[in-house]
Amino acid sequence: MFDFMKPPPHTQRLPQDQVDPYYKRLRWQIFAGIFIGYAGFYLLRKNFSLAMPFLIQEGYTKGDLSWALSATALAYGLSKFFMGNISDRSNARVFLMLGLVLSAVISLVMGLVPWVLSSLVMIVTLSFLNGWVQGMGWPPCGRVMVHWWSHKERGSVVSVWNVAHNVGGGLMAILAYYGLLRFGGDWHAVFYVPAVTAILVALFAYVTMRDTPQSVGLPPIEEYKNDYPPDYNAKTYEQELSAKEIFFQYVFNNKLLWYIAIANVFVYLIRYGILDWSPVYLKEAKQFAMDKSSWGYALYEWAGIPGTLLCGWISDKVFGGRRGLTGVVFMVLTTIAVAIYWLNPAGHAGVDMAMLIAIGFLIYGPVMLIGLHALELVPKKAAGTAAGFTGMFGYIGGTAIGSPIIGYLTDHFGWNAAFIFMIAGSILAIVFLVLTLVGEKNLEKSEKVATA
Asked: What are the tens digits of pLDDT across the range 257-295?
């Protein structure tokens, strides 16, 4: 590992009278850094989906382009896991900034080097590289959140932070549309305009973020908040773990982590099956113009903001922290919305837009719950790896494999076959979330027996 990537050392503890005001100020500052920084990744995550209608006009098939979507998702899923493990042993602020700048460079190449998009091999290659460096966004944010917010407050913090997905994704569509207008209809602007913005965001994130409280002279969050997990031991809990310890002691043998990872496959199939293909589907099946498709894309993302916050609140206040049950409720409603979005006849644009908003409102809640649950199931020094593990399943199984299947089904059997496939996936998501809920109940019973 490069020296500049290593976690900064612990520094001398500040005087007690300085701890509280400095902690409060830094937590606001750091939250702004990880929120805006992670939103910056979404300025560059799904630009290709908005470019697909133009590439189809230039001769590519939907099946061709689905390989680019698959390459991005495959690389992102693998990176989120393996780079997540590196992130657990790295300086979060450097790690996040580096990933975002590299992603911006790749997007600039795709937008400003004309011959790149004339080769499917180059499109797939650059999509894979972009997916890999995109995987450097979530893990450092997870590392920061488990170090700067205690267990009892982490659910609310993660719920609010999670809407960075939607803020960034929605702004990407607006920036892309602005680029089309500003540069005379040049559709390559969907790549280079968001990329320039993302570089500025990366600099902001680096300035505002910090790695751990101990690196700036503050006590661990558990001590500051007097909020200690049941198995807390200061000596071991704050010790950096080796890759082997993280993988084999806390991740691979964690049954509940496997349950939520498998559920994530089908949650992501719906999340990106609808999002990635909405510009093409709305144009071909519903006769939407580019401006309406861009707004539909943006509204899908932004609807996830209140939906995620509501899902987090319901999970904590209504279902008492039972993440699986909350996920089941949201996925049942998602399945209904996807069915209406599919079956609504062309010419009823208001219904299509309403269902896109409804799906966005509903699907990001289960996405957030799975990420939050992963953080809660392992020690904080393994948080990035655990989040990456569930993300790897979601992106590889739900997106890398799901997107080519959707493209193939659409090319050979039409949109009806693609939507039947997605609705089946949504039902399977419900099934595995129910299994997750059962696993939680069994674990609670075992713990009660053990303590009796």
From this structure: 888 888 898 998 898 888 878 778 888 877 676 556 667
For the four alpha carbons of 377, 378, 382 and 385, in that order, the dihedral sign comes to negative
C-alpha 172/C-alpha 43 separation (Å) is 5
- Torsions phi, psi of 423, nearest 5? -65, -35
- Residue 239 backbone class (left: φ over 0; alpha: ψ -120 to 50; beta: rest): beta
- C-alpha count within 13 angstroms, C-beta hemisphere, residue 243: 9
In three-state secondary structure terms, 113 is coil
Model confidence band, residue 442 (pLDDT cutoffs 50, 70, 90):
low
CA 225 to chain centre: 28
What is the average per-residue pLDDT within 149-164? 80
Distance from C-alpha of 386 to C-alpha of 374, rounded to nearest angstrom: 6
Residues 6+ apart with CB under 8 A from 107: 44, 47, 130, 191, 192, 194, 195, 198
Amino acid type, 412: H
Q: What is the pLDDT of residue 292?
A: 66
| pLDDT attached to residue 449 | 46
As given in the structure block, the two tokens for residue 120 are: 């499917």
- Give one DSSP letter per residue of 2-63, joined into a string: -GGGSPPPP-PPPPHHHHHHHHHHHHHHHHHHHHHHHHHHHTTTSHHHHHHHHHHHTT--HH
Q: How far is it, in rounded angstroms, from Cα 201 to Cα 160?
A: 19
Q: Rounded to a whole number, what is the distance in angstroms from the first to the last CA of the chain?
A: 46
DSSP label at residue 345: P
Q: Which residue, among 402, 166, 414, has the nearest Cα to 299 in the 3D structure?
A: 166
pTM comes to 0.75
Residue keyed to tokens 């050392």: 9
With contact defined as beta carbons under 8 Å apart, do 170 and 302 qualify?
yes
117, HSE (Cβ side, Cα atoms, 13 Å): 24
Per-residue model confidence as pLDDT tens digits over 312-347: 888 877 776 677 788 899 999 999 999 999 988 877
Instruction: Answer yes or no: are the C-beta atoms of 341 and 288 closer than 8 Å.
Output: no
pLDDT at 444: 57
If one compares 336 and 445, the residue with the highest pLDDT of the two is 336
Using the 8-state DSSP alphabet, how is residue 321 labeled? T
Pick from 339, 366, 363: nearest CA to 351: 339
